[in-house]
Amino acid sequence: MAETGARALGRPPDPDLQDRRRRELLLAAIDLFARKGFSSTEVQEIADAAGVAKGTVYRYFESKEALFLAAADLSMRELTEWIDRAVERCVEPVERLRTAALTVAGYFERYPERIELLAQERAVFRGSIPPTHAVYREKRRPRFEATLREAIESGKLRSVDVRALANALSYLLFGAILCGSVEHSPRTLKRLVRESIDVVLGLLKTGDDPHV
User: Fold this and answer.
1) What three-state secondary structure class fits 159?
2) Do residues 132 and 69 make contact, with C-beta atoms less than 8 angstroms apart?
3) Enclosing domain of residue 103
4) Other residues' Cβ atoms within 10 Å of the Cβ of residue 97
5) Coil, strand or helix: which one is 205?
6) Do 141 and 207 belong together in one domain?
7) Distance in angstroms (rounded) separating the CA atoms of residues 85 and 81
8) Number of folded domains in the chain?
9) Could you tell me which of 180, 179, 178, 170 has the C-alpha nearest to residue 200?
10) 157 and 96 fall within a common domain
11) Taking a C-beta distance cutoff of 8 angstroms, is the pair 49, 31 a contact?
12) Is residue 66 part of a domain?
């Protein structure tokens, strides 16, 4: 292996190579965990899929559990990056809300195995750790609530409790994604999310603003 050779020659490990190797392991893990489940997936299978020795996996992740959680974290981190890129072009707060919701749907349409991973996490680690998606939701809460507050203060949405609305929209979105993935083709997620978010925003819009 390249990093092993570097150590043998006394050279420091290549950080770019290490980042690539770590990502390759995580992508292999996401695919296998999603298809086979956490309990049925062996570390050796992940190593084989990534084209490395089993020991290499343990140089990056101390256990199969740590690898699973890192895979879930990668999924949510990349989803966050998708959302940030999408909404930075949006000026109106309601447009940001709708764009963010549709971006979540688009992400899971492209990577349906990642919603499966998050669903498994809830079952495998129930009660022992906070769900990764909930951790990321709380990280984004201040920005989310600020957007809702902006929409209300600008008259785009009716005045309601911002925290309660943030919770309701978050649960609606996650439920639509999860149920849509289970009950329908992943390719219908955008349509399901669009219908759900448009109904809610339509109920919340102010009577004198036909553009919400």
Assistant:
1) coil
2) yes
3) 71-212
4) 24
5) strand
6) yes
7) 6
8) 2
9) 170
10) yes
11) yes
12) no
